[in-house]
DoxX family protein
Amino acid sequence: MKKYIPLALRILITIILIQTLRFKFTAHPDSLYIFEKVGLEPVGRITIGILELLAGILLLVPKTVWVGATLTLGIIGGAILMHLTQIGIEVKNDGGVLFITAVITFILSTITLFFYRKDIPFIKKN
């Protein structure tokens, strides 16, 4: 059972990352609003979408889980920072769902990176 928890976390993070891509890649009005507000529309929206897709793929490949988790931390850390400084916790009356999802994803990615820390090549192994 214990060995399935890291896999479940990886799949959950990937689902969260992938499900947001339809909004970014189809230029959904909510996505446009967010990226215009932070001055990253359209290049930032597409670039972040591609990076999220890449992170999701990397999380599913056993040898690159640590890379995917690290990339996710960077992307989602940026999203959290943008929420706290420019966008706000609540976006277009969503009740804070986007922000809460970002925080949950950040926490899950941190836990995943902890589980796979032994795979990071430049970390000294004890």
Q: What stands out?
A: DSSP finds six helices and no strands in the chain. The chain has one domain: 4-119.
